[in-house]
Amino acid sequence: MFKTDPATPDLFITPVAEVFIRNHLESHPRLDRAAWSLTVEGLVERPVRLDFPAVLGLPQTRFTAVHECFGNPLHPTVPTRAVTNVEWSGVPLSAVLELAGPLPEARHLLLEGADTGDFGGESGVRYLKDLPLDEARSGVVLAHTMNGEPLHPDHGYPLRAVAPLMFGTNSVKWLTRIVLAADRPDHIFTTRLYTRVLPGESEARPVREKDVCSKLLSPGDGSAVPAGSRELAGYAWSSTEVTSVEVAVDDGDWQPAALDRRGPDPSWQRFRLRHDLAPGPHRIRCRATDSAGRVQPLTGDRNAVHEIHVVAEPAV
Ligand code: MTE
User: Fold this and answer.
1) Which residues line ligand 1 (CB under 6 A)?
2) CA 99, 53, 92, 27 torsion: positive or negative?
3) Do 96 and 178 contact (CB within 8 A), yes or no?
4) How far is the centre of ligand 1, averaged over its atoms, from the C-alpha of 75 (Å)?
5) If you measure from the C-alpha of residue 53 to the centroid of ligand 1, how many angstroms do you get, rounded to a whole number?
6) If you ran DSSP here, which 8-state letter would residue 120 be given?
């Protein structure tokens, strides 16, 4: 179901070749852009069908955003830390919706991909996600490039949705159909999987908004480094700005790391801390807090504190 992740490189923009690929269904469409089209239907004044040149003719936008996989929906609390930061360009969904004119009773928006297959005991399934219409209208972009290049076929060529503040599962690849509806569709990828109960809540909600999280990337996990003063660094991200990151070495105190501001795009934020590593093995952990006051839990959830192990080697 999931391909092995490349290691996250310690770069602000993740090269396309290093971006993880998540396909739930067997068919990995190889679509012909000249034959491709996107329909907008359901509760709209005018159903529309757009070919690729028509998409390019609409207003374009470009931004950098964290692209993060929620993890395996069958094991929603297990951390996978599949995360990258990429630049997208495409058309705001709002521009496409304006052409179709949503009716007042439309409350939900369904995004459907061209892939089909079997998943979770169901066969002949399409990849489908739904979002509240207002949230989708203000936040979703229909992207045709990643890092300035046309989307790779594995990343949804020729057009995919990107919901920059949400987990990657909402960013439907190989997008061919948008449907406006009054109610949420009951479907394996909408109501039956990809739901979770957040701490302090009693009802399951769909997996949408990203959690606060951070990942140590330098030094690399399992690496050997010269003993002495070393920079411990990585990235932190959330659906809102991250306001602090702390780093702990072995059983030492949590120390505040220097943290870059987020800027106008929902990118990840670099953190760094200099620390004197004595010769020997070390455990290094990082913990982020966001502007909503959310803090990474120490254990027990998919965004639990990240920990790496390194060996500091004495100078010879
Ligand atoms: N869209 C389609 N059509 N089919 C899929 O299986 N996987 C989703 C999402 N969109 C998926 C999809 C999941 S779970 C994630 S994390 C992201 O795509 C991964 O995007 P990527 O493979 O381009 O990195």
Assistant:
1) 19-25, 69, 113, 115, 127, 155-156, 168-169, 171-174
2) positive
3) yes
4) 17
5) 24
6) T
Q: How far is the CA of 252 from the centre of ligand 1 (A)?
A: 39
The closest-lying atom of ligand 1 relative to the alpha carbon of residue 156 is: 23
Q: Which residue type does 15 have?
A: P
Low-confidence residues of the chain: pLDDT under 70 = 1-6
Whether 45 is covered by a domain: the verdict is: yes
**Residues of the chain with pLDDT > 90: what percent?**
91
Indicate whether 168 and 276 sit together in one domain.
Answer: no
Look at residues 183, 206, 229 and tell me which one is the last residue of a structural domain: 206
Question: Could you give the CA distance from residue 240 to residue 25 in angstroms, rounded to a whole number?
Answer: 31
Distance 113 CA to ligand 1 centre (A): 10
Q: Which atom of ligand 1 is nearest to the CA of 19?
A: 24
Predicted local confidence at residue 316, as pLDDT: 74
9 assigned to some structural domain? no
Return the ∠ at Cα 256 (arms to 272 and 277), rounded to 5°: 60
Over its C-alpha atoms, the chain yields an Rg (Å, rounded) of 21
Distance of CA 60 to the CA centre of its chain: 21
Residues 66 and 156 in one domain: yes
* Six token digits for residue 111: 């995004």
Number of domains in the chain: 2
Q: How far is the CA of 2 from the centre of ligand 1 (A)?
A: 10
pLDDT value at residue 2 = 41
For ligand 1, atom 6, name the residue with the nearest CA.
23
